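DM from R.C. (forwarded with permission)

"hey, sorry to bug you on a friday — could you get me a structure for this? deadline for the figure draft is monday and I only need the backbone to look sensible"
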Amino acid sequence: MTTRTRPLSPHVQIYKMPFTAILSISHRITGVALAVGTIVLGYWLASAAYGPVAYGHAQAVLGSFLGKLVLFGWTAALFYHLCNGIRHLFWDVGRGFEPAAADKSGRIVVGAAAVLTVLTWIIA
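My reply, with the result:
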């Protein structure tokens, strides 16, 4: 009986995931977060339709620390997904596929999303 010496897959602690792969996974996660956030938005709008008591309750929930944290995360997800979607539009026309360009545009996406999120919360 002979044993085969096949290479093993890189271990999780050894393998360093590429930045573009992390951005791709984050894009999918923020898409799901936006769907959940839309349900929260629907709850807030429905509470306004149900009257002042329901709206006051929704305002209390969304105005709490946890509610504001969720809204901040939803805002960050919105701007990240938007900026990364614009990046994908450039890719759709064949621009920015080079590894250096993809890395640079990914860093721009993260920075722009952070700046837009903070600016929105400062203005609001």
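R.C.: lifesaver. Residues 61 and 67 are 6 Å apart (CA to CA).
me: no worries. The mean pLDDT is 92.
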